[in-house]
Amino acid sequence: MNLPEPFIKRMTHLLKEEANPFFDTYKQTKASGLRVNPLKLSLSEWEALSPFDVKRIPFVETGYYYDPEHDQPGKHPYHAAGLYYMQEPSAMFVADVLKPESTDTVLDLCAAPGGKTTQLAGYMENEGILVANEINPKRAKALSENVERMGIKNAIVLNEAPEKLAERFEGYFNKILVDAPCSGEGMFRKDEDAIAFWSEAHVDHCAKQQRHILKSAYSMLKEGGILVYSTCTFSPEENEQTIEDFLNNFPDMELLPIEEKPGIVDGNPAWSKTGNVELTKTKRLWPHHLFGEGHFVAKLIKHGSNPPSKQKPLGKGPSKNELRDFYKFAHDTLYHVPTGPYFSFKQQLFSLPENCFDFSGLKVIRAGLHLGEFKKNRFEPNHSLALSLKRSEVKHIHSISLETDDWKRYLKGETLQSTGDSGWVLILLNGYPLGWGKETKGIIKNFYPKGLRLLS
Predict the structure, then answer these.
(1) Which residues of 84-159 form beta strands (DSSP E)?
(2) Which side of the chain, N or C, has fewer Cβ within a 10 Å radius?
(3) Which residue, among 115, 114, 96, 111, has the nearest Cα to 33 in the 3D structure?
(4) Residue 193, exposed/middle/buried by CB under 10 A (0-12, 13-18, 19+)?
């Protein structure tokens, strides 16, 4: 691995006697991790079920290391079922610092591809409101797909610039995560393109961009609200100095201590411009101190107040005829009807979080739980609904296991043999939903989304 010479000089100057152990990590294998989805199963259930050789990550509640030389979790059908999310281990620490509750209104401002969003959702237990925003349209689509796969019901996925959201949501959120775009120095072992793209000018550009994003985040945070800032880079300009600048510009913000975890060290005030000792409350995850690629995290509370913006209530929901078709499907298929408020758009029906805001005028990629589509005098359920359900919530199921090829046939879009019923059935892999099928005339017609199907 050929590291940029200016990067080597910078890190040698910063780390001094720790520089050699730091650079030695670039000769080692990168850390690979997966994080269990608590919306679908407990850690004990996962450990009994796991087909992989995994080891607990000591600084993350739901994280596990795996060896990519022996296991490929991304190709396993449990991945399609949303039982886990593949994520770099040190990146998992960030959402654990924010740790939202089910009553919170949460914003993940720079959310793609969705690792931290899906982790926040696990804490919220499908309650409260979780807004996941991504400015890049292509990445926002990937974010939405991951929200769907993990069975999340309470997320609104947006594709907006932070400053536009700040105009709309002043003082609205009580917890905000800013996992800021950065120079990606912690990605070098994982992505050689990050090395090619790196420069000192890029570091400076990112630092300016981060401060702009934090300004928007500040205006959207309620009095008493918590803001967590993170990057996957090592440069002080984007970490200690960015937080120092933020505190100087917004003196009603205060750094909070972060729980001590194995291998995680304090931020360094000496790398700031003023030597602010409060910066020891920030945390750094270094690859030579723990098995991970590296991260910086700061946790802050807002003491000042700005009048919260008034959010319009949602407009009218679906028509009586539309609800009739949906309720018929729900009565035939489910033991409990998914709760509203309901929102319909272009023949699509969604279940939104309680007390959801009016999102007209915003670029919405996903609005809560996509229940399905209204066809002529009938309702067709969406894949999102399937992945949000549990076995106990569905009247008709078709069970498959890893011991047969039925799971491959289903994920390829092929039909399955019917068990004799008729109507919609939830396809379960060892008890966990993969998607919908429809039984008719001795076969189960496959409704696994075409864009997700296995090609071989």
Answers:
(1) 84-86, 105-108, 129-133, 155-158
(2) C
(3) 115
(4) exposed
pLDDT single digits (tens) 390-427: 999 999 999 999 999 999 999 999 999 987 778 999 99
CA 51, 55, 61: angle at the middle one, nearest 5? Answer: 110
Burial of 339 (0-12, 13-18, 19+ CB in 10 A): exposed
Where does CATH 2.30.130.60 sit in the chain? Answer: 389-456
> Which of helix, strand or coil describes residue 349?
strand
Look up residue 418 and give its two tokens: 């019917």
Strand ranges (E), 42-126:
54-56, 63-66, 84-86, 105-108
Give percent of the chain with pLDDT exceeding 90: 91
CATH architecture of 5-302: 3-Layer(aba) Sandwich (3.40)
Report field, pTM of the whole predicted structure over 0.90: yes
Helices and strands, number each (H, E), in the chain? 14, 23
Catalytic residue of the set 110, 182, 206, 232 = 232
Element (H, E) at 330: helix 320-333
232 noted as active-site residue: yes
Helices (H), 360-402: 383-388
Planar angle of CA 342, 348, 351, nearest 5 degrees:
25
Quote the tokens at residue 446: 């496959």
Amino acid at 141: K
pLDDT digits (tens, 9 = 90+) for 335-378: 999 887 999 988 999 999 999 999 999 999 999 999 999 998 89
What is the pLDDT at residue 314?
Answer: 77
First to last CA, the chain: 34
More confident residue, 338 or 121: 121
* pLDDT, position 259: 97
Residue 201 is predicted with a pLDDT of 98
The beta strand positions in 271-417, using DSSP E, are 283-285, 295-302, 342-345, 348-351, 364-367, 369-375, 378-381, 397-400, 416-417
Q: Which residues contact 404 (CB under 8 A, 6 or more apart)?
A: none
Q: Where are the alpha helices (DSSP H) in 334-404?
A: 383-388
Q: CA 399 to CA 412: how far, in whole Å?
A: 17
CATH of 389-456, one of 3.90.226.10, 2.30.130.60, 3.50.50.60, 3.30.1300.10: 2.30.130.60
List every span in the chain annotated with CATH 3.40.50.150: 5-302
pLDDT averaged over the chain? 96
